[in-house]
């Protein structure tokens, strides 16, 4: 296993319900280290650029509206096998299908308002991190 970095987003449904600390604690207790973090509010253009790969999906406009509906917390998580480990901690996209004890099973409101984002590959992680953070914002 290699040490990796992955992009995490605590989504607006979670910041609205004051769940930031509870979610961060899941990452830290499972061996992931936060090497960058900031709370921001995305513009429509920010969200459209981040989710450009989903542009043709029927839920694209709803997803952009949701991701711009409130503050989010952007994070870079570092650790052994961090990309896959974070996906495991998050659980499946649809909270109804998420394994018990995962963030989405415990906190998500719906398939859209599912509390967290995590990169799905090492390559996408590198691109997403570069999109959201400057190099000097990562402190390992
Ligand atoms: P993820 O990698 O598990 O986040 O899932 P995807 O990359 O497939 O989808 C990106 C995000 O779009 C999800 O986290 C949800 O917020 C949203 N999403 C995915 N599928 C649906 C859907 O069927 N309907 C709606 N409204 N949103 C969805």
**SS field, number of helical segments:** 7
The biggest sheet, with number of strands, parallel, antiparallel or mixed sense and barrel status, is: 4 strands, antiparallel
Mean pLDDT rating: 98
| Distance between the amino and carboxyl termini | 18 Å
Shape category: globular
Write down how many β-strands occur, each being a DSSP E stretch of 2 or more residues.
4
User: How large is the share of residues in beta strands?
Assistant: 15-25%
Strand order of the largest sheet: 2-3-1-4
**Which runs of at least 5 residues are low in confidence (pLDDT < 50)?**
none
**Order of H and E elements:** EHHEHHEHHEH
Q: Give the bound compounds.
A: guanosine-5'-diphosphate
Helix content, binned percent: 25-40%
Structural class: alpha+beta
Question: What is Rg?
Answer: 14 Å
Can you characterise this structure?
By secondary structure, the protein is of the alpha+beta class. The protein contains 7 helices and 4 strands, in the order βααβααβααβα. It has helices at 12-16, 20-29, 44-50, 60-67, 82-90, 103-107, 122-132, and strands at residues 3-10, 33-40, 72-80, 116-118. It has a 4-stranded antiparallel beta sheet. The longest helix is centred in the last third of the chain and has 11 residues, at 122-132. The model has no long low-confidence stretch (mean pLDDT 98).
């Amino acid at each position: 296993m290699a040490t990796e970095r992955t992009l995490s987003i605590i989504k607006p449904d979670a910041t609205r319900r004051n769940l930031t600390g509870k979610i961060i604690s899941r990452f830290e207790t499972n061996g992931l280290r936060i090497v960058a973090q900031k709370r921001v509010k995305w513009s429509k253009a920010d969200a459209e650029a981040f989710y450009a790969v989903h542009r043709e999906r029927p839920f694209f406009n709803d997803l952009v509206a949701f991701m711009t509906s409130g503050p989010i917390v952007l994070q870079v998580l570092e650790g052994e096998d961090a990309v896959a480990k974070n996906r495991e901690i998050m659980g499946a996209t649809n909270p109804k299908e998420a394994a018990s004890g995962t963030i989405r099973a415990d906190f998500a409101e719906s398939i859209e308002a599912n509390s967290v984002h995590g990169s799905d590959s090492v390559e996408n992680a590198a691109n997403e991190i570069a999109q959201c953070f400057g190099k000097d914002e990562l402190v390992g």
